[in-house]
């Protein structure tokens, strides 16, 4: 079964700067960005289902404030 894509959001405390995200077991971190103006880290994670991604993130020490299914948007050109 192909893993699905999920967006994981973590809201930061004002003034904090995330230096890294721990590795995940049973899920794959595709990319993560810190949006300082919004005080959020947005991570794109592949995994079999929402529960597995949430469990992997929690086990790795991530705080998960929001988790939603996501889809890739491709260029029309």
The helix count comes to 1
Give the overall average pLDDT. 85
What is the strand tally? 4
N-C termini distance: 29 Å
Principal-axis shape: globular
Biggest sheet, open or closed, and with what strands and sense? Answer: 4 strands, antiparallel
- Structural class, judged by helices and strands? mainly beta
How much beta, percentage-wise?
Answer: 35-45%
Spell the H/E element sequence: EEEHE
Task: Report the uncertain regions.
Answer: none
| Strand line-up of the largest beta sheet | 2-3-1-4
| Alpha-carbon Rg, integer | 13 Å
Instruction: Summarize the amount of helix as a percent range.
Output: 10-25%
Keyphrases for this structure?
77 residues; mainly beta; four-stranded antiparallel β-sheet; 1 helix; 4 strands
Write a brief structural summary:
With 77 residues, the chain is mainly beta.
Your description of this structure?
By secondary structure, the chain is mainly beta. A 4-stranded antiparallel beta sheet has the order 2-3-1-4. A hairpin with a 4-residue loop joins strand 2 and strand 3. It starts with a strand and ends in a 7-residue tail after the last strand.
